[in-house]
Amino acid sequence: MSLLETHKLRKHFGFLHAVDDVDFIVEQGEVLALIGSNGAGKTTLVNVISGLLRADGGQILFHGTDLTHLSVYDRIRAGIARSFQIVNLFDHLTSYDNIALPIFSREGKTRRLTSLADKDGAVRQEALEVLNQYGLESKRNVLAGVLSQGERKLLDVAVAHALHPRLLFLDEPTSGVSTREKAPIMDIITSVVRSGGITAVIIEHDMDVVFKYSDRIVVMHQGTILAQGTPDEIRRNEQVSMTLLGAPALT
Amino acid sequence: MPLASDAASLKRALAIAIPIAVVLILIPYVVPPYHAYLLSSGLTYAIAGLGFNLLLGYTGLLSFGHAAYFGMGAYAVAFLVKYFKIASMEAFVVGGVAAAAIVAAVFGFVCVRYTRIFFSILALALSMVLWSLFLKFYWVTGGSDGLRVPTPTLLGGLIGNPEDKMDFLSGPYYYFVLVLFFLAVAVMWVIVNSPFGKALQAIRDNETRAEFVGVQVRKYRWIAFVVSGAFTGLAGALWVPANGLITPDFVYWTFSGKIVFFAVLGGFRTFAGPVIGAVVFNYLEYFAVASTDYWQLVLGTVLVFLVMAMPTGIVGTLGRLALKLRSAS
User: Closest partner residue to A104 among B2, B195, B216, by Cβ?
Assistant: First the structure.
């Protein structure tokens, strides 16, 4: 059984068919890249699967369970987490608190009113480990709002990762950062994801990043899936090259 | 709160809080009785400010209707006196907090479905509904004449029936208020530093992301609303025996504006801001009323000055000054 399957998933905005009867499959343990030109429907697809947008039709099955009509909260409990294309952090909280909160949430401890958050040793230790994994331990007391863009991107992913998801959507984890910073950021992210056995779907525009870090690639175009396959297969795919690059594939 | 400086920040907080606590304990011995009474009123307002700021400073919700919970706490006390012949201050506190929490639970259920201006206006509208009920159901509430609340007994009747009310208010009652003020500050401090408090701050900063880390945003806002209402109800319950009378004026929108003023004056981005703001406001209002017939003009001018010159309030401004002095030295 695949980890995630969508059947004829649909999201329309008036006449715009952002996601049009999409059958999308994610296998357990893979790092999948979701690519396509601007407006292809990648982010909308992730928004619908993660619950940010309601599907107009179709079905979302996560490990066989129908999530189509569940709330964001229930999808997170089921094991789906995501980061955002535009960094979405708690800017007036420290990096540490940004990480501690999803851990408290995962453990069902955010309902606690009568204990001090900083005195929870287990959460504290785990939060510091997560910060360490993402190379942010020295920034633990820094407000998220004043971190550099690269650090914010990493923290954004770390917040989602701290939920211990089974499926992690990363929406353009290197957008807005310099070319020099991209590889180190992706190295950290993929190393953490692979070592934790997390299945990841990465939306990305940078083809170097896509080919280097993904096991499989799904190409979207005008709300539908144009092609899917291994990086080599996609690299050789004439239709993909003509659609995305406007040039024939290099063989 | 920074991890590495946990102990240091706690020490700093205690270094400020302990001298203030000592001064508050000694106040009745060093100032005239009326000023001790005035300070106890300021402390009850401070409890309301604490409750209000759980919503504004920590959850990002500006309520223009908190007079409802202050008034409900006060009216609950008056009802206990009128209909149950109860005179125990402890019963007043329990009754006032419970009544305000129940009203906050109902109003909050409606309000937390909205944010920003829609939340603020809805909170205001509901408080005005309560105001009109207190005004129009005069056979129950005394209408515009309000209800009288006699001097209560304290500690299950051990202290009560004073010969001079001002001696009672500036002595035993002052300490009763002071103990509950300390308790309220301690409880609120724990709440805002609890995992729940962190979740509220996350909602304030980024509602969408909070939802995507598994925080049930609407539910948590509602809990914050109820806690906030309960604190404000406690303030109303403590305030009304000292005032001796509750009228619908204290449920009217202008009183809600006063509670907002506490937070703006002290600074709603800090824990202590609304507490300091409430006490300072109480004195400011007292001196303005005593000095001129145009006291609203004085308060209005202060508010305009604050917003323009000290947007972070008294505590925020003092904090910035302290930071400058520290970096200069």
Answer: B195
